[in-house]
Amino acid sequence: MDRNFLAAFAPRAKPEIVDALVSTGNYILLGFGINASPRRLATFLGQIAHETAGLTTLEENGNFSKAALLQQYSRLFDEQKAAEYAGHPDKILNRIRADRLGNGPEASGDGWKYRGRGFMQFAGKENYSRVAKEASVDILADPEIMSNPHVAMLLAAAYWYNSGLNKLADADDIQQITKKIVGGLSGLEERKRFTDTAFKLLSEKARSTP
Known about the structure:
mainly alpha
């Protein structure tokens, strides 16, 4: 990957994310075999581009309006609770992620502490523990480090490799990759669009290279 490719692939990408991808990112992807073929690299980029809103953010916002809370989390919020929590992302994530994904109860603060971060938007203490072991980075002690794009790339690449996603990428099985990452098919069409764009750009670059 180079800056010209990323400018065409994700025009709104944050400069610090681009810097990480074209420096340490290329070496990390090489180490995990992710850029061994245009198909693998394109599939990886398609997933992380969706998860990071076009390479613009490495941290979950969690800021919901009252209406959104009532619509999406009616089991957890009534009118009063929704009005109280709206606009307070820390309180919202502590509530909706309580006693899930390895997190403690709402009062523990785990929902906010272990909010979605990185290129794969890993969320929850359980997922933090897994990727910490896979990449040998102590993100449980310092969760904020996951928002560092260099560290985030290492964590995403290690997770991808250890989850067997290179093989699925070789088979162009975007559905199964998406299921492994998010447990369902959320954002599948956008993931496909990003993947197709990346593959087209990589293929064009390969044809133009002597």
